[in-house]
Structures are given as structure tokens and as C-alpha cells.
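Translate sequence into C-alpha cells.
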Amino acid sequence: MATTSEPAEVRDTQDGAGAERGEVAPGVEGVLGYGDLAAEHRALTEGCAAVDRSWAGRLEMLGEDRGRFLQGLVTCDVEAVSPGGGTYGFVTSRKGQVIADVRVLALEDRLWLELPAGRAEAVAEHLAAFKIADRVEIAPLERVPLTVAGPRAAAVVAAAEGAEPSTPTAARAVSGESATAAETETASGGAERSAPPWSHRAGSVGGEDVRVVRRGLVGVEAFDLWVAPEGAERVWEALVAAGAVPAGFRALETLRVERGIPRWGAEFGPETLPQETGLEEAAVSFTKGCYLGQEVVARIHYRGGVNRRLVALRFPAGSEPPAAGATLLADGRPAGTVGSALRAPAAGRPLGLAIVHQRAAEPGTRLEVAGGGEAEVAEVPR
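Result follows.
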């Protein structure tokens, strides 16, 4: 039976709006959509959508050794991040393979870790296995992420927070003075747009304290609002009132595949090396020093390469997308498996992503889908 970590109140609100629920990862339930995928996709690409991502794996790390401890177990440079900043990387095994990808947010007295759906417990156990005399505590994170994404995401966040009369912009408006360019940008959400990915700040939406995170690897402008579960309903309602269209997992997946962004549990997993994911530049630091699996990852980077890489797939117009995990054949030989495949409204045909052998990775290569069907390899959008 699938489990869900959605707060009960926001669940009731979403159900009242027609939410359809199902598995977003093995054993993890979430909102798949609200009955109109095309409208949700338009909101993500042309306006702003709100997505309850309570399905995300979540941990927090406390204790004075937290940064040094985590630094030795992930590919990103945690110790280079100051409070209010964040980074993206991989939790790797001794063989350099990807146990999970992780978004690390640094707060004054703790680290927040966002992980793939259903992976928090496994990652917590993996990290705990390396604790010896380290002053660090690994615990569930009692916050949930509500994501707003789309070209108007920053403006919706600004509207949901509201302008306090004491802010310089509001005070000048009352007195008839002109706001400075920087103040105007902040009031319209422009300052949020220029913030680096994974940077974050405290905020207030719907009377609830939130942490507003500038999100990366979505394919459009996006922000996470992390809120205590009991306040999620009020934040959700404030975002919708500010102009965000409720959307679900399917819409996010469609955008992700269109924009060529791989996902742990779909395109890559525990048998994948970082360089095979196409995310090496975003996720791996080659200057930070040692971490678990670093020797393997560095040797590939400096001395050789990998035999597989991420590619985009284009399926014939009018065809049905193949099932995830379907074998891809090149000249009759297995070359990889379909990671994701779905109908893409913007493309007018099914699209997909896969990690395939280099011999089958050149754009224009024709692949056979085992069991029927074909695919053409295309460049991964950047």
C-alpha cells in the first residue's frame, strides 16, 4: 500500500479541487493531477503552477560536525555553502555509484536534505553507518515543500507574501516618491529571479512561516516554500489565490522530460555513475577533496570516460509511449532501457529520456523498442 506524507488539511483542500492520487515512486503516493494535464502544462510553461511535493524525501542534520560529516559522503562541496545557500549533488557508494541525488540547504544550525521520493530512510541508514565519534544527528525533516513554477513564479511568491506597509517600496508609494529600481525589482519578484539556485530566505505566506528556496533543475523558474505540515493548507490557498494553478506530478514529469532533466528512480539509480547522468557539471565538485567513491568518480573524469550517457528520445507522432524499462535495441543489440516516456503537448509526439551505450547515443540514431515500436535519439535540451 502506498504511503503519503501530505498534511491532512491540504489533502482535503486538493481533493475538493479534483485531485487524482497515485504512486509517484514505489510505495509513495502523491497528487498526479487535477484532470486537465494540458492546462497544468500551460501553467508551468506560460504562467505559474503550484505543486504539492510532500512526496519528496526529507532529512535534517544537526550537530557541530554536520558539514564536515556530510562533506565526506556527497559529491558536492557542502563546506563551501554558507547559511542561506545550498547546493546539489549525489550521495555515492564506495564504487562511486549514485545512491540518491540530494539538495542541501544550509541554515544557521542545521542542514536540510531533500531526496528522491521514498529514499529518506535508506539514505539516513547509509549516512548513519559512517558515524563514529561525529557530533551529528540525522532526523526526519518536519517540513513539506510546496513548489511554484513557471514564468510568473517569482511574481506569485511576491503576491502571496504581500507587501508590508513598512517596506521602502510601500512607504514611497504612500508618500508619492518613486521607488528605486532595486526596490521595484524586489516587489515584483525580480530579485528572486536573480538569486542563485538553492539560495533561500525566511518568509511568511498565509500567516505561516516559510522558507523560500530558489529551485534549480526544474526547466522553468521555480521556488519551493517549505512549511510546517499544519500550515500547508493556508500556504497552498494563498498561492492559489495569488494566481498559481494547481498541478500535479504528471505535469512536472512532462516538463522535466521536455527539458531533458533526468530523475533518480527513472533515468538513473544505484547502478549509475555520476558522469552517466548528464548532471556532472551541476552535481560534482572536483576540487573539494575526498568523499566516499571519489577515487572512482575522479578517475573517470581525469583519465577516461563512461560507456553510457543520457539521451533524449523522440517517438513517432501518433504512437503510444513505451513503458518505462522497455529495452532499447541498436542493430539488434541491447543499448539501454527507456527511463521515462510520455505524451508531450508542446512536441506533438511522445518524448522520452534514457541512458544508453555510447554506440547508440549519436543524435539521429534509430533504435528499436523491444516488444514493438521505434525511437530516434535526439540531443538532450540544455
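Note: The CA atoms of residues 37 and 251 lie 6 Å apart.
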